[in-house]
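#structure-requests
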Amino acid sequence: MNPDRWYILFAVMLAFVPVVVDMTILHIAVPSLTLALNASGNEVLWIIDIYPLVMAGLLVPMGTLADRIGYRRMLLIGLAVFTVSSVAAAFSPAAIPLIAARAALGIGSSMIMPCVLALIRQSFDDDAERATALGVWSVVGMAGAAVGPLAGGLLLEHFWWGAAFLVNVPIMMIVIPMAWRLVPETSGASSGPWDPRQALLLVAALMLTIYGIKAGFKSGLDLFAVVPFAIGLVLIVWFARLQIRSVSPMLDIALLKNPVIAAGLLMAFVASGALAGFELVLAQELQFVLGKTPLEAGVFMLPLVVAAAIGGPVGGKLATWFGLRPVATLSMLAASVSLAGLSFTNLAEDHYLTVPALLAVLGFALSVGLLASSVAIMGGAPKEKAGAAGALESTGYELGAGIGVTIFGVMVNSLYRASFALDAAPPGASNSIGEAMTLAHKLGGDDGSKIVAAAKTAFVGAHGSVLLSVAIVIGLLALAVFAALRNAPSAAEHS
């Protein structure tokens, strides 16, 4: 038994925290960096979702590479990449360099994430201790992603937007020496297959598809939108065919033939996407429309993040007591009802009781839904394919977060443009609320005030419509989950 196992757990948890916090910490910083970098609406969406999309495409091949070269070496390389990328992101002078730095952060994270779980399993021989360690990992992961907006608010209250990245550096300065000293050297398994081409194919497919969606919503269906979207879809189909035909696929898509696993993956995708997309749009409304400071916005979102942090551990108990099917179905229904309720509330007037209650229900429901998705995926997979199921689940989470931000963002921006009503408005004011606020800040005076008023009205209407649309989709998903999980284990079988 490794005498340093608890120190190793502490070290890998320290490494894990910035990785998960970076998924959501920028949501609060979006208004600040939009004004500072003069970023367009599309650039803001790329800044947010390039990180999870790159990570999603590289998680599996980086995990396989870590098996070959050793977890200690891969972890140290990933930590170094993450540190350098954090500094580059913090001091980015414009939107494009920041997008590139966020992509590099995604590469570093994809190296760190597989090593965290592998080192926990490697360091803890005792089943009970390993279960405790994995429980710590689960709570840290859920709480870290949930607390990101509050952490961003605290930092931006006293520093500039780059502090959201620069805060990673002192943590890494502690983690890297600890990992160097405590994590044992492993030789790796050189016989494991490793083909990075499939990962690059998946990343390219996702980027082209999402670029086409964003371009189409912004400028209409022209060649600059249709061609990338079509190429992206072709690459996705090609990637899927490669996985089905391969003896050692990067993602075992054949697992999706099991309706329980398919339902679990769909829940993971939708729940992580809804949480990430909603937090981003809510942060913009709180700051751009209601005029809250980053810290005030972070505090306003506390019911959401606290409930989300609690939902994961509680969800496991609920699935054991009542069975997977009712817990999964009701969590999706609760998320649908809370989103519908939020679409009809006025954040400025109903923030004392109604909105906090709805935010708490949403955070708890989506967190329980994520846990239920994990139970469905891992419980539905054969024991010999547990690793493949875990890879599919992790990829679904990251893809959901990235694509959720895209869907929320492009829908809000599209509806915002359609409802922006101001005669003789300057070019760009109707593209997004961020661009409108930047222009209003430059113009000042009466003209600036008119742009601000029109932008706020358009954004509030767009936000409400999007929340209602997503609520309907999640409500339909709840019905699909109820049907798909008819053969899932009951409460008695769990017991």
